[in-house]
């Protein structure tokens, strides 16, 4: 099938058994392509570079390997970048912050990326969803992320992030989902310093970390000088390999008058229902 290199602007071949292109190409030939959806195939090899006209680039659930090319950072119109569930590896390029001034969705979930998350989010960041979960990322949560004030979903769960609880995320007026599960986060989760912090949160998962000092209702420990202790946490046999001080999952439900925080043991919540809820919430931006 011959497709015009100048006329084609939308191409979707998702959910097939495609293994590659007829000719090995590093740069896709369609100069005016805006939407490319190749998810759910068997594409292998390096990540193809779309044209500068691309707006939506979705190649999740394939077998792509190697690193993210620097050229991906120089796509001026890119809004949706979805590379999840491939075999991509190496460190995230520092230039990845370049697309944060135009992109809305950055999904790198379930690959083998390592090293630190680049501290390079632009001052005019437009990102609404960031999903770096299920990789081997380490270091601290980059403070330049504070520039992404439109952020609604942040998922960096199941990595090796070693940091304290990012209370500074509380200033985000639209943040609804915060997933930090199964990392190496530690320290005390303090009481919000202002009533407007984390106003819109609906889902929070802090399980599988090394936090201490949770307090406030419905827990028995009071915030401040209260000496009441937390109930003993039961560790799951299938939990992360590093020691945990607790195994709580925190679900935050927003109300007009404030936040009601419900804390339940991880073993009580049906994991399948929880994952379904998060997956379907994320799917809203992927349609």
Model description:
The protein is mostly beta strands. The chain has a single domain, classed as Leucine-rich repeat, LRR (right-handed beta-alpha superhelix) (Alpha-Beta Horseshoe), CATH 3.80.10.10. 5% of the residues lie in helices and 25% in strands. The protein has 1 helix and 19 strands. The chain has one helix spanning 271-283; strands spanning 10-12, 35-37, 44-45, 56-58, 63-66, 80-82, 87-91, 105-107, 112-116, 129-131, 136-139, 153-155, 160-161, 177-179, 186-188, 203-205, 210-212, 248-255, 258-265. The chain has a 9-stranded parallel beta sheet, with no helix packed on it. The longest helix is centred in the last third of the chain and has 13 residues, at 271-283. It starts with 9 loop residues before the first strand and ends with a helix.
Structure summarized in a few sentences:
Helix content is 5%, strand content 25%. With 287 residues, it is mostly beta strands. Keywords: Glycoprotein, Leucine-rich repeat, Membrane, Receptor, Repeat, Signal, Transmembrane, Transmembrane helix.
Topology:
Blueprint: E1 10-12, E2 35-37, E3 44-45, E4 56-58, E5 63-66, E6 80-82, E7 87-91, E8 105-107, E9 112-116, E10 129-131, E11 136-139, E12 153-155, E13 160-161, E14 177-179, E15 186-188, E16 203-205, E17 210-212, E18 248-255, E19 258-265, H1 271-283
Parallel strand pairs: 1-2, 2-4, 3-5, 4-6, 5-7, 6-8, 7-9, 8-10, 9-11, 10-12, 11-13, 12-14, 14-16, 15-17
Antiparallel strand pairs: 18-19
């Amino acid at each position: 099938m011959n497709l015009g290199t100048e006329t084609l602007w939308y191409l979707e071949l998702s959910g097939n058994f495609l293994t590659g292109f007829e000719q090995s190409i590093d740069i896709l030939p369609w100069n005016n392509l805006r939407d490319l959806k190749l998810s759910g195939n068997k594409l292998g090899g390096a990540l193809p570079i779309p044209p500068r006209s691309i707006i939506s680039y979705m190649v999740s659930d394939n077998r792509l390997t190697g690193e993210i090319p620097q050229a991906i950072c120089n796509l001026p119109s890119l809004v949706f970048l979805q590379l999840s569930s491939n075999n991509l590896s190496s460190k995230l390029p520092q230039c990845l912050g370049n697309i944060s001034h135009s992109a809305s969705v950055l999904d790198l979930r379930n690959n083998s990326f390592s090293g630190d998350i680049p501290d390079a989010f632009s001052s005019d960041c437009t990102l609404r969803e960031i999903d770096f979960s299920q990789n081997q990322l380490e270091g601290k949560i980059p403070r330049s992320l504070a520039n992404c004030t439109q952020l609604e979903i942040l998922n960096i769960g199941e990595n090796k992030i070693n940091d304290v609880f990012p209370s500074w995320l509380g200033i985000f007026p639209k943040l609804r989902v915060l997933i930090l599960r199964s990392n190496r986060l530690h320290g005390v989760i303090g009481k919000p310093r202002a009533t407007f912090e984390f106003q819109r949160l609906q889902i929070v998962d802090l399980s599988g970390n090394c936090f201490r000092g949770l307090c406030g209702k419905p827990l028995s420990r009071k915030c401040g000088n209260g000496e009441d202790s937390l109930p003993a946490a039961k560790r799951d046999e299938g939990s992360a390999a590093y020691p945990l001080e607790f195994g709580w999952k925190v679900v935050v439900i927003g109300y007009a008058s404030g936040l009601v925080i419900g804390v339940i043991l991880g073993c009580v919540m049906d994991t399948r229902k929880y994952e379904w809820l998060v997956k379907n919430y994320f799917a809203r931006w992927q349609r």
